[in-house]
Design a protein that fits this description.
heterodimer; A: 174 residues; alpha/beta; 5 helices; B: Transferase(Phosphotransferase), domain 1; Nuclear Transport Factor 2, Chain: A; 3 domains; 5-stranded antiparallel beta sheet; 11 helices; 17 strands; disordered N terminus
Chain lengths: 174, 387
């Protein structure tokens, strides 16, 4: 199974493509799309949506996950929220079988951890998940994109849920 | 092709119906339906252009849907096989995207094949470049637009091989869309495709020495298109004109040696970051270019700035250049050129009031010596605030 995970910042959106089954994952691609600094926000969002849709097609992913900002973030970026909204719309209009959008608690739940502290350690590089990659060499945003992709591999209705039908963790806790 | 009598109710000035192309609906084996033929009735309105002796492009009225469409008429004898007739139509259909010109339908008559596409009233990027020069922000926006279409084609395994300003159209929203997949090829699993006939001035260096190309050839052509957006139509014509319109040894040498196009001809308002990324896309060695269109887009995305991205350049007849920047209160103008006697270089800054009849006020004029072109250009760049 192949899944893509996204992590947005005000200047980039990182994506990771992961192949595997629950508990064992390989990173197929790890890259970012930059937000065009010279464009106005509506054009920036259009650009991101268009390019990310092609990235999803290029890697033929069947699942997707978006790591959203924590609701308790001390200095939230309005533009990041905008980007996350566009990515959620993109997931809804894509052909993936299943997707989610959620913060660390939602990712922890999908990965089978009791609380989000384990995921926080993964994100900070203090511990490494069972992913075949040099975990410590990636940035925090890249690690979060990989974790979102792994969570998407784990998630979904075993009976085959339609896209959007299991978007329970949007922007919040599991 | 059959020429009708043009007696169509409601048609303007009753021009003759150009053709009745046929759509043949074949019988499905096992079903009792007989083959059927459906006609498409189109009136020729005006010619738009002729492309490389192989096809004609005209604006036509499709009477069935009452729509003005652009028709590309390709002579069958110019194509190698029946499969080739609709190859372009198939590539366009495979590459459906917001930034790829869509195909309305394709059909054939006794002699030609027709491809029907939407009409873009705003015209092509080439037409825009012939009207005026572009600001840096426009270059970035339009450049990203058509690269999105090109990236999409690459994702579908289609290599375009004919990226140039005449093949980029502006839609009603002012967004750029990529057109003309007539030279496009499907890449093999290794990413290679046979070299098609190409527009001579956009032939990538590796096409002179090899028979197969990769997507880096499209990166080169996309970079060259971006280059032409930076320097403007007049400067491009001045550079390309001496090489003629066909492949020639001088053009071959200049491209392989990295002398054409001139990497030092960027106007002063083009920021260093944009110059650098375009120059890298034009490297004669494909391995030293940006590997993918997505990489090129990511680099274009890093071009940043404030008002300095909005200077509108103009070329004057004497070889000088000026830039205007309009704010809420006034228009500021920076002019670079030789003085009236044609001896010294000078840079002039003028403030133009926005109210009708307001007199322009000259803020600063600096004369530099006759051999000070480089200093004058550097000074103009500083006045434009371009990094």
């Amino acid at each position: 199974m192949r899944a893509i995970g996204f992590r947005a910042t005000p200047t980039d959106i990182h994506y990771a493509v992961v192949e595997g089954d629950p508990g064992a994952y390989d990173v197929v691609a790890l890259d970012a799309v930059r937000v065009p600094a010279a464009l106005l926000p509506p054009n920036q969002l259009h650009f991101l949506r268009t390019v990310l849709l092609d990235v999803m097609e290029e890697y033929q992913v069947t699942r997707a996950g978006l790591r959203t900002a924590e609701t308790t973030a001390r200095a939230p970026s309005v533009f990041r929220y905008n980007v996350e909204g566009v990515v959620q719309e993109l997931l809804a209009s894509s052909t993936v079988d299943w997707y989610f959008a959620g913060a660390k608690a939602r990712i922890a739940s999908l990965l089978g951890y009791a609380d989000r502290k384990t995921v926080t350690k993964f994100c900070d590089g203090d511990d490494a998940p069972p992913v075949a990659t040099e975990w410590a060499q990636h940035s925090k945003e890249q690690r979060e994109a990989i974790l979102a992709a792994c969570a998407a591999v784990n998630g979904g209705n075993p009976n085959g849920a339609a896209a959007g039908s299991t978007l329970a963790g949007v922007g919040g806790k599991a | 092709m059959s020429s009708g009598n043009g007696a169509v109710a409601g048609a303007p000035a009753t021009p003759p119906i150009l053709f009745n192309a046929l759509l043949t609906l074949n019988a499905v084996p096992g079903l009792a339906h007989a083959p059927r033929v459906a006609g498409v009735q189109v009136t020729h309105l005006r010619d738009i252009g002729v492309g490389e002796g192989r096809h004609e492009v005209f604006l036509g009225l499709d009477h069935q849907i009452n729509a003005e469409l652009v028709f590309k008429r390709i002579r069958k004898e110019a194509l190698a096989s029946r499969d080739a007739f609709f190859a372009e139509a198939r590539r366009l259909y495979e590459s459906r995207h917001r930034h790829v010109v869509p195909i309305a339908y394709a059909c054939e008559d006794a002699a030609p094949v027709y491809l029907a596409m939407p009409h873009f009233a705003r015209g092509s990027l080439q037409a825009l470049l012939e009207q005026r020069c572009l600001s840096t922000r426009e270059i970035v926006r339009l450049g990203l637009d058509f690269r999105m279409g090109l990236h999409h084609a690459h994702v579908r395994g289609v290599l375009h091989f004919d990226v140039k300003p005449t093949n980029v159209f502006l839609d009603d929203a002012g967004a750029a869309t990529l057109a003309d997949f007539g030279q496009s090829r499907l890449a093999d699993p290794g990413g290679l495709a046979d070299t098609p006939p190409m527009y001579p001035r956009h032939v990538p260096p590796e096409a002179y020495t090899g028979t197969q190309l990769t997507r880096r050839a499209d990166v080169y052509q996309a970079g060259l298109t971006l280059y032409r957006m930076c320097v403007g139509a007049a400067a491009w014509d001045a550079q390309a004109g001496p090489f003629g319109k066909h492949l020639s040894p001088p053009l071959h040498d200049a491209v392989l040696q990295g002398r054409f196009p001139d990497r030092n001809a960027f106007p002063e308002h083009i920021p260093t970051r944009l110059r650098t990324l375009v120059t890298k896309a034009l490297r004669p060695d494909p391995d030293k270019r940006w590997p993918t269109v997505l990489d090129l887009m990511n680099q274009l995305a890093t071009v940043s700035g404030g008002d300095d991205l909005d200077w509108r350049p103009q070329v004057d007849g004497s070889g000088g250049m000026s830039w205007e920047l309009t704010s809420q209160r006034a228009t500021k103008r920076v002019a670079l050129g030789r003085n009236s006697s044609g001896t010294d270089w000078r840079v002039e800054v003028t403030r133009l009031g926005l109210t009708p009849g307001a007199k322009p006020s000259r803020l600063k004029t600096e004369c530099l010596g006759p051999a000070s072109e480089a200093a004058a250009r550097a000074h103009a760049r500083k006045l434009l605030g371009v990094s």
